[in-house]
Automatic annotation (TrEMBL):
InterPro entries: BRICHOS_dom, Gastrokine. This is BRICHOS domain-containing protein 5. The keyword Chaperone does not apply. Keywords: Disulfide bond, Membrane, Transmembrane, Transmembrane helix. It comes from the Eukaryota. The gene is BRICD5. The chain crosses the membrane at residues 128-150. It comes from Python bivittatus (Burmese python). Pfam families: BRICHOS. Residues 20-117 form the BRICHOS domain.
Length: 152
């Protein structure tokens, strides 16, 4: 697993690129200007969008702060890293209008349709989790984000 971060204070965005051992890259965009997190998953024909919550804002701010004071990727001490898991369900029939998604999400997703996702406490037993990614923030918090399908 390899992770890189691109911070743009001018655009008020942060993009995490997480590359798996099978050389497939997931992009996670924090668009602080519009208050969205956008996910572009390998092998998927859609992008996924959710509204930022307090934890997302805090992680983004930590990345902005660290980028001001440090060159190169952040080094996270494993003994002080906190982990949490977030489950996201795709909202059925929920295409996002391109204008609503914001410029950064449209640029990341290119021509792919963008769908809304919403946070769930945990995945229902009958639903299939099809992808989980781990992202570690400079604030020593790592999140495992899992996507699964909701029935129509």
């Amino acid at each position: 697993m390899n992770q890189s971060v691109v911070v743009s204070k001018a655009k008020n965005t942060i993009v995490y690129y997480v590359t798996s051992s099978s050389n497939r890259t997931t992009a996670v965009l924090f668009d602080c200007k519009n208050g969205y997190v956008c996910y572009k998953l390998p092998g998927q024909s859609n992008c996924y969008l959710k509204r930022m919550d307090a934890r997302d804002h805090s992680a983004a701010q930590a990345s902005f702060n660290l980028s001001e004071h440090k060159e190169g990727p952040p080094v996270l001490p494993s003994d002080s890293t906190q982990y949490y898991r977030e489950f996201l369900g795709v909202v059925p029939g929920s295409l996002v209008r391109p204008a609503e998604a914001g410029e950064a999400a449209r640029a990341l997703c290119e021509e792919a349709p963008i769908r809304w996702v919403k946070k769930k406490d945990d995945p229902p037993k009958q639903r299939l989790i099809y992808l989980c990614i781990d992202i570690c923030f400079p604030s020593n918090i790592c999140v495992s984000i899992c996507f699964y399908y909701l029935p129509e």
